[in-house]
Amino acid sequence: MLYFEDIQVGDSQASTEEYELTADEIIDFCTQWDPQPFHVDEEVAAATSVGKLFTSALHSMAVAMRMGVKEPSATVMGLGWDEVRFETPACVGDRLRLRGEIIETRLSKSQAGLGIVRTQLYLTNQRGDTVIRFKAAALIRQRPRES
Amino acid sequence: MLYFEDIQVGDSQASTEEYELTADEIIDFCTQWDPQPFHVDEEVAAATSVGKLFTSALHSMAVAMRMGVKEPSATVMGLGWDEVRFETPACVGDRLRLRGEIIETRLSKSQAGLGIVRTQLYLTNQRGDTVIRFKAAALIRQRPRES
User: Fold this and answer.
1) pTM (predicted TM-score)
2) What's CA B18's distance to the chain center, in Å?
3) B122 closest CA partner among B144, B98, B101
4) Is B51 in the A-facing interface, judged by CB distances under 8 Å?
5) At what angle are helices A57-68 and B23-33 packed, to 10 degrees?
6) Chain B residue with minimum CA distance to A61
């Protein structure tokens, strides 16, 4: 279990696995959550400047969160995301990876025993292009004191 | 179809429907995308300060996007989100609504025929608490000129 004290600015981590986007998954996800024609219809997508099926930014964020939840940490809750930028469409067949770096750690001013950790994250494709980048903030417990 | 010219700062819209969160949907969504113990196990959730099953912020964003895609607009692509804040946990049984207000419209400097529209969005629960608030930016086509 990673506690607040175990996390330092500059710590970085990258996924070793890739997450491959299939047409079925793109169409299923976007039909349910973001049914824009170019996310659920391969012919409509082919006629856009992207030229093939590409998924919702929400789906890319879902892949990023899934790849990010690997090591159990003493997370109490997420606080928010900042500067979420959709840089390159994530397309059918793309193989996605996540990397992240801790950019800030500080103790909570209002809640004893808790700290705030901010991370800069990048979801990239198999060519190294950034699909999505964003900053995430979370509330993390301090290590319990031995009594 | 709503084009860039049809959208003005101050325009606002609120969902008339509610979206009710069920335990099955929370557990299914979070098992796939954000499998933290307090999102997928009702007993673990009951022992947190929230006191009952609550969903991932990603799921709340998914509900917001789904409720937001009602009126077809000439959207080319989303550009990003800013100041995404997770203010109140979204819990089993909550009934969610979305409202939004246009906060900025401007023509693209680099791409003719396109404009950028920014919206402030709020996903709220049945008590009027804000679950998530965020700003979204999108690239929207201008109305085609008649020739």
Assistant:
1) 0.93
2) 13
3) B98
4) no
5) 70
6) B58
As beta bridge partners, residue B97 has B124
| pLDDT tens digit at each of 147 positions of chain B | 889 999 999 999 998 899 999 999 999 999 999 998 999 999 999 998 899 999 999 999 999 999 986 666 788 888 999 999 999 999 999 999 999 999 999 999 999 999 999 999 999 999 999 999 999 999 999 998 876
- Other beta carbons within 10 angstroms of residue B126's beta carbon come to 12
| Option in B58, B69, B83 nearest A34 (CB) | B69
CATH placement of domain B4-141: 3.10.129.10
User: What are the chain A neighbours of B56 within 8 Å (beta carbons)?
Assistant: 65
- For chain B, the maximum distance between any two Cα atoms, rounded to a whole number of angstroms, is 66
Chain A residues lying within 8 Å of B71, measured CB to CB = none
Contacts of B80 in chain A (CB under 8 A): 83-86
Contact A134, A86 (CB under 8 A): no
| Cα B49 to Cα B47: distance, rounded to the nearest angstrom | 7
Contact, B129 vs B87, CB < 8 A? yes
Record: contact A78-B66, CB cut-off 8 A: no
Residues 91-110 of B with CB under 8 A from A: none
Residue with tokens 């909550």: B94
Domain ranges of chain A: 4-141
Residue of B32, B48, B77 best to disrupt the A interface, most CBs of A under 10 A:
B77
